[in-house]
Amino acid sequence: MPSLASRMMPPVLRALGYRRRFASPQATTKLIAARRLRPLPYGPPRRLPAGVDIRISHDSDWPIYEVLPVGAVPRGQIVYVHGGAWINQIAIQHWQFVAELAAATGSRVLVPIYPLAPRGTAATVVPRVAELLLELAAGHGAENVSVIGDSAGGQIALSAALLARDRGMPLAHTVLIAPALDLRLNNPDIDAIEPNDPWLVRPGLRTAVELWRAGLPLDDPVVSPLFGDLAGLGPLTVFVGTRDITHPDCVLLVSKAQGAGVATEFHEAPGMVHVYPLLPIPEGRRARRTIARLLQQAPASGAYTRAADPPR
């Protein structure tokens, strides 16, 4: 049964206006204009979970933060791609998750601050994230490199992982949290979920999608990774709640990955809202512990697991 805290999330999210931001093209256009006029800060908060050091590099076109475990040689390399519908900057929940992940796994976590739409587009951002993954694989071995993304960042992460696979570098893990997978947003199973999703609705999201794809076809895997050939992808894990309009396409992705022989683990959380592993609820904490554990071990090749989060 969902926890009391998780049952409180839908009314809280509605009260905070999350759904209103995407309720119409006009609402999303207004939000984009406001973000361009007054960009939100992207740096990590001053207070994060203990046990990590943070550095920043400007060697590339974007700022890239490094979050490292204190006093230890990192065991792995993780690239974390934040969500935000391609138009919103990284948020405190992302930073808290990154710090927990670095401390729990003993890994170095790289956080690229990619340009948001309309300045950043699928054609410019996805290949650059793939290049970062390839650079890490060249220096540390692909078996030590993983990518994680939530929501829009999940789309970028999977599209970039497919490009890395095309270059002969399947990653150790691709972990997706409520990823955007088919930017046509026309899966008929979304219709039943959308009225009860307290966060995401399609009218405004389509406005963000148009800026992000910037003329690329909606079925291009750089835009909609659900259309990509998944064969040869490294181990894949997907987390999604059933009260989330990304859920139907996550089900399709898992089925497609399983059919392609990809080692796949599916965490389907009844009643949970969008990106529930990032939220301060018991189900979110359990999911974060599960993510940390799976990043420390590789699933057997071709295995498929439909998993529930472990008990408290």
What would your notes on this structure say?
This protein has 312 residues and is of the alpha/beta class. The chain has a single domain (4-307), classed as Alpha/Beta hydrolase fold, catalytic domain (Rossmann fold). 37% of the residues lie in helices and 16% in strands. The chain is built from nine helices and nine strands. It has helices spanning 4-15, 25-37, 92-105, 122-140, 152-166, 190-193, 202-213, 247-259, 282-294, and strands at 52-57, 64-69, 77-81, 108-112, 145-150, 173-177, 236-241, 264-269, 304-307. A nine-stranded mixed β-sheet has the order 1-2-4-3-5-6-7-8-9, with helices on both faces. Strand 5 (145-150), helix 5 (152-166) and strand 6 (173-177) form a beta-alpha-beta unit. The longest helix is centred in the middle third of the chain and has 19 residues, at 122-140. The mean pLDDT is 94.
Strand and helix layout:
Layout (H helix, E strand, L loop, with lengths): L3 H12 L9 H13 L14 E6 L6 E6 L7 E5 L10 H14 L2 E5 L9 H19 L4 E6 L1 H15 L6 E5 L12 H4 L8 H12 L22 E6 L5 H13 L4 E6 L12 H13 L9 E4 L5
Parallel strand pairs: 3-4, 3-5, 5-6, 6-7, 7-8, 8-9
Antiparallel strand pairs: 1-2, 2-4
Helix pairs in contact: 2-7, 3-9, 4-5
